[in-house]
Amino acid sequence: MEARALVERKRDGGRISPSEWRALMRAYAAGDVPDYQMAALAMAIFFVGLDRDEVVALTDAMLTSGATLDLDHLRVGRVDKHSTGGVGDKVSLVLAPLVAACGVAVPMMSGRGLGHTGGTLDKLESIPGFRTDLPLAVATAQIERIGCALIGQTREIAPADRKLYSLRDATATVESIPLIAASIMSKKLAEGLTGLVLDVKCGSGAFLPEMDRGLTLARTMIELGVDHGCPVVALLTAMDRPLGRACGNALEVEESIMALRGEGPADLMAVTYALGAEMLLLGGAARTRDDARRRMEVAISSGAALERFRQIIQAQGGNPAVVDEPSLLPQAAECEFYLAPRDGVVAQVEPRAIGRGITALGGGRTRVEDVIDPSVGFVITARPGDVVRAGEPLATILARDAAGVASGRDTLARAIVVADDADPPLPLIAWRVTEVGEERWVDE
């Protein structure tokens, strides 16, 4: 395997064959190709791109570099959901137990924070004792027993992607559509799914802010699903403001618990129900979108969805009492309101600045080895378009010390803009994309 020749060829606009992708990914997973050569290849792909056949070949090469979940014996649909990343995006924590409670198996494999976005694994691990590093055999048994497992990408699954995922974050190549698509789909196809729902974020806080690039990414992943016999549906949702109110690991777990109690913010619940309906339809647990919505509402009002979350927490070593007492989650030492600097209209709540501010508080990583503080973050009650008065609370800063409060205050001063007027925000859900094509979303 001469990795340098492949880097050079791709740099100059050439193609890499399927057999070369397989050999390269096997060698990289085995440690026979150094990170600096893969970093060079990732940057070449970032600028030159990959054609459709190359994206398929790269996905297959990463998929076959490791093991897969074998769930074919289950008598129910097996459907997962993936978000391309956002700030305050705790949908997975609500959606997985909710859909499982409605009769669809959810083998949900998630990641850690990437860039300015939060990671589902980091949020889950703020629950005392919660383990996300389940071996495949343990995860399979848990899915058989309670219909859901919330796991990370173990060394068994797509190990080549596991290494490349971290490298992309460190080399500013996250935003490459071919690399995003191949990374997501190699992991999801390893789960043995019968369907996949994608939440493709657009707006200033997304990795791909432009709607047209979001549509391109959705189409690319849908095509990869078609090639592997896995139906995929994508919704394009807004990330020009945080989703929900809580931004920060433990804070988002608490808001997820409230959502499963039926007390979640309206925007969070709208996105959750929309994605959940697609999962229930793909999983064969509902006939229509209205039917799916009713099933989910019953699962929440009856307590079944919250009870399923409790079972998942207990099965994965966490303290299930947090479901009843969220105060058992890590608590920040310092808490302070952030007040409106003037009368006016909230013109902007910038999610990218919020995400970076959480990292500055210690709630995210700048290096892979960093240990995060799960207690810190923001609870932002101001929404774009709100009319506010000077001195009115717009958000709460949760920090570990006075310096963190000051840092949080600086972050919110940049992120929350109060002006004389405001442009309307992006629609919460803009497009629905399937193998057949795309259609504009209509609120129901």
Low-confidence residue ranges: none
Write down the secondary-structure element order.
Answer: HHHHEHEHHEHHEHEEHHHHEEHEEEHEEE
* Rg over alpha carbons: 21 Å
For the record, give the distance between the C-alpha atoms at the N and C termini, rounded to a whole number.
54 Å
User: Treating each run of at least 4 consecutive H or I residues as one helix, how many helices?
Assistant: 16
Structural class of the helix and strand makeup?
Answer: alpha+beta
Dominant shape: globular
Please summarize the sheet with the most strands: 5 strands, mixed
| Number of β-strand runs | 14
| Chain-averaged pLDDT | 94
Helix share, percent? 40-55%
Task: Write a short abstract of this structure.
Helices cover 44% and strands 16% of the residues.
Write the layout of secondary structure elements.
Layout: H1 3-11, H2 18-29, H3 35-48, H4 52-63, E1 79-83, H5 91-101, E2 106-110, H6 120-124, H7 136-146, E3 148-152, H8 159-170, H9 177-189, E4 195-202, H10 211-227, E5 232-238, E6 246-247, H11 249-260, H12 266-282, H13 289-301, H14 304-315, E7 334-339, E8 344-349, H15 351-361, E9 377-380, E10 387-388, E11 393-399, H16 402-415, E12 416-419, E13 429-433, E14 438-440
Parallel strand pairs: 1-4, 2-3, 4-5
Antiparallel strand pairs: 5-13, 6-9, 7-11, 8-10, 8-12, 9-11, 13-14
Helix pairs in contact: 1-3, 2-4, 2-8, 4-9, 5-11, 5-12, 5-14, 9-10, 12-13, 15-16
